[in-house]
Amino acid sequence: MSQDSLHEPVEIQRPDDPGTTLRNARESQGLALQDVAARLKLSRQVVANIEASAWSKLPGDAFSRGYIRSYARLLGLDPNRLALEFDRVRGTLVTRPAPVPSGRIELHSRRKGSRLLKLSSMLMLLLIVASLVLWWQEKRDNPALDDTGSQLQALEDIRIDAMAMPDMLSAPPSPELASALAEIDRLMPSESAAQTGDAESAEAAASEESLQPQDDVPAEAFPVETAQPSGQAELSADTRDLLRLDFSADCWVQISAGGQVLHSALMRAGQQIEMRHPGPLDLVLGAAQAVQSVHYQGRKVEFDSNRSGVLRLRVAQQE
């Protein structure tokens, strides 16, 4: 018996359609399609596609599952049950293995588990070795990392120097120190008097010169140096190829580049995404109103934040 004959495709009974369930519940509650779209902050067409089970017209299964959960909570239905129905609808064709002796199944499972364990261990070991090699090469090829460490140490020294002085330095002087200071004050009057006399004679000479007429002398314009912002170069280096998204409400986000998905998850209110990529980047936002701001390379990306429904953006388009 060949290995392919062990599995036979079997068509199981099609489960309940979550789109039909949501539409029937909405109609029974007397809600209009436009009212549901406004409450869910989605477009009317997206809600219509959900009720019509037009899953191919929606952004993806992750977004569709989130829409179904939100729609179910709005109508007072069980979101977990409808999400499970959606998963069953998206995978109705299953494979059922043909019956084989139990001893053979156990032996096959043990062999398969042992092979998977050995393969995973080898892959993990190779990854560790490759990471160590890459780290060593990067450290050898980039001596600037040591300079960065010294700069950080200098900054730490500066922060230490700028700390407040201990309380013991602000305490009153000891009796020995007080007597030494008194002795210094006793010896200082003669020098202070001499300096005072010199200062008075200098002031008298200056007053006599000010009484004498002087020719008008044009004032010399001294150059004024304008301080340049020292943090501009560091700011450009910190924000180079940096994508940052801030969220004010729950929103599904998918970030891809060249057809490869870099990030796909549900972001909560107050969360932030930061990643570096030279671009171009394709962004799919489940709710534009939930995105507080989008910045790339330190510049704000303008978009219509009042738009309802899914928003697609492309940033860092190469010319």
Automatic annotation (TrEMBL):
Pfam families: HTH_25, RodZ_C. It comes from the Bacteria. The chain crosses the membrane at residues 116-136. CDD domains: HTH_XRE. InterPro entries: Bact_Cytoskel_RodZ, Cro/C1-type_HTH, Lambda_DNA-bd_dom_sf, RodZ-like_C. Residues 22-51 form the HTH cro/C1-type domain. The keyword Kinase does not apply. Keywords: Membrane, Transmembrane, Transmembrane helix. Residues 1-23, 190-214 are annotated as: Disordered. One of its GO terms (molecular function) is DNA binding. Residues 1-17 have a biased composition (Basic and acidic residues). This is Cytoskeleton protein RodZ.
